[in-house]
Amino acid sequence: DEDEIVRSSSSSSDEEVSSRFVARDLPDVFPGQKVMTVGEGVMDEIAAESQRLWGAPNAFVTADDCRRAVRSLAEAKVVCAAMDERLEAWVVKTRVRDADGEMFDGDDLLEYWRRRAKDMCEVFLKTLVNVGGRLESCSTTPKHRDSLLRVVEGYVTGGVQRKLFKVGIHPKFAREDEITAIRLEQLASLPIDALGLEVERYAKVVDDEDIIASLSSLGDLSSPSHMATRLVDVSTRIRQAGGDEDDPMNADDLLLVLLALVARAKPERAYSLVRYVETFHALVSNAHKGEEGFALANFSGAVRYARGDACGAIIEKSSTARLE
């Protein structure tokens, strides 16, 4: 893969950058003429159909959900075909230099890949809205726009995720994944009271096979939003099993229980997974501000805590106590 020089964004206007991107990434796209409606009956029909399609933003979870939503619309056929072509041709560049000729490290590359994916989302969004028809309400109705934002994100991230993992993220963070896997293995062998958790209250929660399976297969899901939705479900089940209205779990216990569960689940390449979801969740939507953002923050916090010095000290202390 050839080196790519990434120059300062101040060297080009936003319009110039946008124009170059459209030409390069959505070839031969012509939105066409917006659908014209005549008469109240037709307008009511279009409004009802738009509400059916876009009225529930949380309905779009998997990458396939997002693909079906727009591919089912005849007016979006040309745009989707062009985006599919672009996603297929998208190359994950791993040898990128800055304006001073310095090679990007892993963190720089993540941000670089994120910007490119976000650019595709923004162009895809703008082009779909310009098509009109059953997409027109997404430019005027907030809930419909939220739905389309989620659909666009799922469509794009679902199209590049496998490439990103295989070519970019997994190779770049292989060593960190190895270190994390060792630490999770060590944590899984500890009694939960070594983490400061009440055995009587949380023993069944940390051994819940369904929750462990949900975490173990997290990396197999189709997009960051899909993963975030799974983590929301995991967090909800933990809180329900570990507390009630009279005595709810506190935030510290939630993090520690999640830590114990992640250690037992041992999701493959856990560190890479955290870095990916942190970087590519909510590229253009506001999903990071709600339950998904909170659940992702807890999962990220659990994995990072597992790698930290404090957790290392807990493991060392427990090992010493067993030897004595």
What does this entry look like structurally?
With about 325 residues, the chain is mainly alpha-helical. About 65% of the residues lie in helices and about 0% in strands. It is built from 14 helices and 2 strands. The protein has a two-stranded parallel ribbon. About 35% of the residues are buried. The model is unreliable at about 5-40 (pLDDT under 50).
Topology:
Blueprint: E1 4-6, H1 14-25, H2 40-54, H3 63-71, H4 77-89, E2 96-98, H5 106-131, H6 142-172, H7 174-188, H8 199-206, H9 209-216, H10 224-242, H11 251-265, H12 270-280, H13 291-307, H14 309-323
Parallel strand pairs: 1-2
Helix pairs in contact: 2-6, 3-6, 5-6, 5-12, 6-12, 7-11, 9-11, 10-12, 10-13, 11-13, 12-13
In short:
With 324 residues, the chain is an all-alpha fold.
